[in-house]
Amino acid sequence: SQAYIMVGLTRGRTLLPLPPRDVLPGGSSGHSERAVMKDKDRVHILENSVVMWTRQIKAVVKQESSTETLGEIGILEEIEFWKNRAQNLSSLFDQLQGDRVKKVLKVLEASKSSYFTAFVRLCKDVSVNKDEAIDLYRYLRPLRRVFRRCFDGVTLHSILQTFPPIFHCLLLAWGQSKHFQQQHRLQNLLERIGNDVISVCRKYLKGQDVLKLPREDVRWVLRRSVVVCAGLRSAYFDFKQQSEAMYGEKLMWAAQEFVVFGRIDIFIERCHDLLDLLDTIDDFDVLNGVVVGGPRGRKLTRLVRQIDTEFQFSANQVANIEYDALDVSVKEFDDDFYAFRTSARNLERRLSAIVSEGLDADPSLRGACALLSVFGPLLKRKIMTAQLSVLMARLVSNSQDELAVVQDLFLKQKDSPPVHDNMPPIAGALVWANGLKERATYAPTQF
User: Which of 120, 238, 341, 358 is the most buried (most CB within 10 A)?
Assistant: First the structure.
């Protein structure tokens, strides 16, 4: 019987192994139904067959969608699942209508076996599930061509245009099939469509190559992927409103959004994490070969280079990952990115302390501007902005004081500006005015 079952599995069918003919009424032994019913050994053999059938049938009925093998199953695989399920349940139904199965049930009914009632109920479940699978596949089959045209050969540039026809077809099927008009069925299909969208985005970038390809190209793919995923969600809400307008409130789409877009949301978050990773590396690139001037320049330069070395080590650990960072089922990235982000934040705090020490060593406006210009985009990062807010406020105040001094000098000396002895009056006045202008605009032009 096991060999018979395995043959069926290789064909995608569930085959029920039948008991020997000589055990059944009217078999080769010629026993009557009453004789078989009174033979406990024969009844036991038939009950064992029913137990095995029950186990096989429950395994088929229980699997209501390809959720059992979710992973990254797409919409076409889901439709193929319903095709196979309809064929398998039809095959099971035909087997249960066979003469030998009916004879088994007659004997169990006559002998008042405890297995009879439960198995008859299970046979009814097969019939109900068969009708449902056939009906669902009847409406999903015409959609295969639509989905295949939408997802085969589609690009990140054009995929947004495929969402309206996809949802329109689903909306039409929703209004026609009573079995399709169940929120969990719609939810399953929407999850599969989301998986297909993620697969299209991942075709353009492997997670292992994020730090190996040109960063602007990687940024474009990540940002476009976020736009595409957001477009899928937006299209769903548009057609959700249409479902209410077409079929009324009772039949409007009401799938659980946190389930439908669960993987999409994780994928969007992963894209944002990778964009943050790239931005952080770009910001810290300014530390490469930096030289800090001022009274404590040598010490501060050594500390900055040490921070740069530690950051490069942390960045290299992320760059050398062996898994695909865009695979949302891979959880290792969350730990690796958390470690990288924690390290970067600690380094930012240390840089803030270095900047503070440099500003204390040379509090002049020109010296402060020269020091801050060394760190460029790092000053815009949240931690450094927060920790240097007091120093920046002082710098702004000093800049305002400098403007007040320049204004006062201009007003006092504009009628008789100081001129070098070896310069003509007009040229000397222009040099004086230009000097005041440079002094007034030096700090603002540094930021």
Answer: 358
